[in-house]
Write a structure and sequence with these properties.
Elements lengths: L1 H24 L8 H23 L17 H12 L3 H32 L5 H5 L5 H28 L2 H13 L11 H26 L7 H7 L4
Helix pairs in contact: 2-4, 2-8, 2-9, 3-4, 4-6, 4-7, 4-8, 6-8
Length: about 230
C-alpha cells in the first residue's frame, strides 16, 4: 500500500509540474492590450498638459522658462543688437517680453483645443510607441496634430499679439529700425513665428512629463499608468 501511495505521489508531482508548464505558456490575460496601452499614453499626455503646459499659461510662463522662452527670430536679432547699440535696450527688452506674453496668452486660450486633440488621437501602434524613446508619445502627438493645432493657435496668437500690445510695440520698433540709414528694412511675420514657438514650447513641456512618467515609478500616480508603463521598464 505504501508503495502504491508513493507511486501516486510521484505521478501527481510530475502532473503538477507539467500542468504548471502549460499554465506558463498560456497568454497573460492581465497584460494590457493595445487599447489599454493607448489609454495609458493619452493619460500621460493629459498629465503633461495639466502639470506642465498649465505652467506656460501663467505670467512669465514662457518668458522666465529658458526651455521654452520665445527668442527673437533671426530677422530681428540684428534689430535687437542695433537698438541696444544706440541706447534703446529698454525698447528691445519690451519687444521680447510681449512676444512671450502673446505665447502665454494663446496657450491659455487654446489649451481646451489641445486637450480635445489628445482625447481624439488614435495610436495605431500603441505598444511600439510605449516601448519607444522618452518622448515617443509626445512626438507622435506632435506629428499627428501639429498642422491642425497651428490652424487653431494662429488666430489666437494674432489676437493675443494685439491684446498685449505686441503689434503696436513691434511696429514702433521696426519703424525705428527701418528709419536708421545703416539698416535694410525688415518685416517678419510675427504671428507665424510666435505660433510655431508656442507650439514648440507646449510639446517640449508635455515631453518633460512623459519622460518623468517613463523613468520614475513614483510619477505613475494612477493604476492605469502603473499597469501600462510597467511594460517598458
Amino acid at each position: 500500500m505504501k508503495k502504491a501511495l508513493s507511486l501516486i505521489g510521484v505521478f501527481l508531482l510530475f502532473s503538477c509540474a507539467e500542468l504548471q508548464q502549460v499554465v506558463n505558456q498560456l497568454p497573460n490575460t492581465t497584460t494590457p492590450g493595445n487599447e489599454q496601452i493607448a489609454s495609458g499614453l493619452r493619460q500621460a499626455l493629459d498629465f503633461g498638459i495639466d502639470k506642465q503646459v498649465s505652467k506656460l499659461t501663467q505670467k512669465d510662463g514662457f518668458f522666465k522658462n529658458e526651455m521654452v522662452k520665445v527668442l527673437l527670430p533671426a530677422e530681428l536679432q540684428k534689430v535687437d543688437k542695433t537698438l541696444r547699440g544706440i541706447g534703446l535696450g529698454n525698447l528691445a527688452d519690451e519687444g521680447l517680453k510681449v512676444l512671450n506674453r502673446a505665447a502665454e496668452d494663446a496657450v491659455k486660450e487654446a489649451t481646451p483645443i489641445f486637450v480635445d486633440a489628445v482625447k481624439n488621437i488614435t495610436f495605431t501602434d500603441a505598444k511600439n510607441i510605449l516601448l519607444g524613446g522618452d518622448n515617443a508619445a509626445t512626438a507622435y502627438l506632435q506629428s499627428s496634430t501639429e498642422k491642425q493645432l497651428y490652424g487653431k493657435f494662429s488666430p489666437v496668437i494674432n489676437n493675443s499679439l494685439s491684446r498685449v500690445g505686441a503689434t503696436e510695440i513691434w511696429t514702433k520698433i521696426i519703424n525705428k529700425y527701418n528709419s536708421l540709414p545703416i539698416t535694410n528694412n525688415v518685416n517678419p511675420n510675427l504671428t507665424d513665428y510666435v505660433t510655431n514657438q508656442a507650439l514648440k514650447g507646449v510639446f517640449t513641456m508635455i515631453a518633460v512629463e512623459e519622460k518623468e512618467i517613463r523613468n520614475k515609478a513614483a510619477a505613475r500616480t494612477t493604476n492605469l499608468l502603473r499597469s501600462v508603463f510597467a511594460l517598458q521598464d
